[in-house]
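My hope is that you will study the record closing this message with an eye to the fold:
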Amino acid sequence: MKKILPMLSFMILFLSHMLFAEDNPQIFGMKESNIKNPEGSKPILFWGNYGVGASNVGVSAVLSASLQFNRNLISTRFIGSGPLFIVPDSGITALYDVGILYGRVLERSKFGFVSIAAGISYLDIDYLDIYSVDLPSLHVQTIGIPIEIQLFLTSKWIGAGIYGFANLNLEQPVIGAAISLQFGKLRSSYF
């Protein structure tokens, strides 16, 4: 528990900073004119990401769903990672990350958007026990701080780009990126 407390403190500070940044859009370099339409109402956009990429654990598959309202972003994600052909020195045979994140859309234009988010996640890690004759798998579960950066070019209903991800935890930190496609309502009528 003592090891988890600093990570949770960091996450609470980060998320509170993101929440209170609503009053000052210049904190993240956002322009108010990029978010509001001329009538003053704000868009609600939603999409799913599907991607394949690489991480420090191996090949990764990403599946996420995001909801944007105002400049706020709520995302859920599932990332599965593992070695492609050989088990690395770490002995990890599979890593699964399931998380919920809150963040901000830093910039949105008629061509795409950039966002960043962080939250809390559950990790499930399988290790190959190299010291056992039967080579059984060790199973570890932990919590972590997931981070995502989305950089996408979009049309009204489909987008393509890079989904960057990381997970800060005490068992096996993860960092990677995936080439992804997005499907959903990606633009309002005034972007």
In short: Strands lie at 44-55, 58-69, 72-82, 92-108, 112-128, 137-154, 158-168, 174-185. The mean pLDDT is 79. The two ends are 46 Å apart (CA to CA). The longest strand covers residues 137-154.
